[in-house]
Amino acid sequence: MPIVSGLVRVMEKAARKAGGRLRRDFGEVEHLQVSRKGPSDFVSKADRAAERTIYEELRQARPDWGFELEEGGTIEGAAGRPRWVIDPLDGTSNFLHGIPHFAISIAVQDPALDGKGWGEVVAALVYQPITDESFWAEKTRGAWLNDGRLRVSARRRLGDALIATGMPFGGHGDLGEWSAINRAVCPQVAGIRRFGSAALDLAWVAAGRYDGFWESALNAWDTAAGCLLVREAGGFVTDFRGRSQPICNAQVLAGNDAIHSKLHKLVVEAIKPAG
User: What's the predicted TM-score (pTM) here?
Assistant: First the structure.
């Protein structure tokens, strides 16, 4: 049984408090007031309430830390202090359509060592309110699902692999790029899934439920926690060119060492310039 740090306990307390309200609102989803934030990008009353709850809990626990919030934007903390990177409801469209597949994502990012910008993600939590699953990780301490240790899958062959992805929609993302990658990957693997929550996709890679994942045009709050989960579960997360960054979001390619390497070769070949 892992020794849970005070930092993870703070994150889980905030997520569970917000998650309880999300569960209640999910049961009344037809009554939610929904506003349009952009083309096919909806934000609900529940989304804003969850973010407010998480913000208040974390601000109380770490008053000098900053925030990077999906709805609330950037809130600067004290110089040299970490920041929280938060998505209060990853999978909003699922939530609004009554599909029980969404999560709260919270990560802690330290300042860069040179004092310019942001560096390593050192703690992460992805909480699924409907299943009450808490995926969490701390740098060098491994990744966990509640009290059980997580490891990425041991599958080595693409033909045995189940791969997750996110598809461009409503003007978001590069449909041509995604289609090219999908044409390259689909014939090689056992299956492809698109469930609509990048945070959970990455958590499920860490748990070995998926063998790999690719998506592009995401945001830091979508992937910050998931990147650390996969890495601490023994996997790899890079961009499509194979570069590892603290938070991969513009391009995300994740999996165990063998699946990541094979997916990387397919992706590079699929998107290389013609000629």
Answer: 0.94
